[in-house]
Structure formats: structure tokens, C-alpha cells
């Protein structure tokens, strides 16, 4: 029997500080064996929302030192300077989506043993999460290439023990359909990317936990953890590119997190942690 704590997208440096401060207590209070955190938005790397987040090696090391075991990512995993991105994604405990074109730095699958149990952590991403015409990951590619489908990628993964999937995407039905497709073979499919936590916590036949969106760890009072200014200008059809660099929201901190109880390769319980 093992307990897995999973935190959704960490948005900004203040949220990073919050997670690092809380992680030791969470591990103790919840009797956590494995802690996984999506940190693709933990740092600011540029002035624009869609290309200006990412993760620094310093931030990754802080998370790991605080008690996080595995860091996952998404479409922002390639934000920032190329050399810095390559350094972060070379870390053995930092994942980025697995179903990416060949030639990109990083890995999307990690096998590890904790508390005497084998786990495989898988990071997948839907095409719905990539909205830029020229996404930043294309800097490492020659010619236009895109993601492999999550299902096709899943079939090629060498898996052992209990499998925990971070499914990064916008589409509700795609996340839910994928979870049903892998029911009985994955212990959990945990949705990230939209930052807004969904209420239902599902336990599918075969022992697969599903939450469509775990939710962000970040400041409230804005739009997905970000000050509304840029989003409002975009929806009004205004030139948001002329605005000053985006700001993060400034409201009280919220934490999107779930705790899984896993027996063998099956999840037997899923609950929210606040």
C-alpha cells in the first residue's frame, strides 16, 4: 500500500515558495510515499503568457529538496533560453511530455521504487495544449512536426508497477476517454493544464483514478493565476502585444492537489488535499 500526492500546475515564484514551504508538512500529515508536482509554470521566462513561463534548474532543485520526488511538465516545458531548458530537462527527476517529436531534450517516463513499490510516472500532452503556430519546442526541430497521439505513445511505453499519468491538455472528453481506455492498466490519470480544478473524483473499474483537472497551485483573483489585463485585451480584440509584461494574480493562494491510495497496481481511493 502506498500514498501518492499529486499537485497540479504551480504558477509563478510565489506558488513555488508556497509548495516548498508546505511539502514537508504534507508528506508527514498525509503519510506520502511519492510526491509528484507539475511545475511547468513555476518560473517567469518572458513577457508574454503563452511563451513566458517554464522551470529553472534552481526551482527544480528547490522542489526536490523540499520533498518532491518527480516533476512533470507540459507545453511550457520548453519556455526560456534553450541552454537553460536543456539543463533542466536533463535532470533525471524532471519530466516533459513523452509524446513529442524526436530530437527534443528531456524524457517523459520515469520508473522508480518507493517504499518497496514500483512506480512508473508518465507525462503525456494533448495537441489541444499547444496553441502557438510556432511552438517553442520547434526550436529543436528541423521542419514542422507535431505530437504523437497520447494513445499511440502510451502503447509504446515500457511500464512497471503502478502507473501514474499526468495528462496535460485542454479537452475534457479527451482526458476522460483516455482514462477509460487505460482503465485497469494505469493507477491514475490526472489532468493538468487548465488550472481550474474540476469537482468529480472518479474511480474507474479496474482501479484507475481519474480527475479531469487537478487544478493549479497559484494565486487566485485573476485568470488561471495571471492578472486579467492581457486576457481581457485579447478577448476584446485589442493589441495585447503592446501591453507591459504580464503580471501574476495577487489574491490568496490556492492548492490543486489530490492524494491517491494505491494497492499493487490499483488505486483504491482518491481525495482532495487543500
From TrEMBL:
It comes from the Bacteria. Signal peptide: none annotated. Transmembrane segments: none annotated. It holds the Pfam family YmdB. Coiled coil: none annotated. It comes from Mycobacterium sherrisii. One of its GO terms (molecular function) is 2',3'-cyclic-nucleotide 3'-phosphodiesterase activity. This is Metallophosphoesterase. Gene3D superfamilies: 3.60.21.10. SUPFAM superfamilies: Metallo-dependent phosphatases.
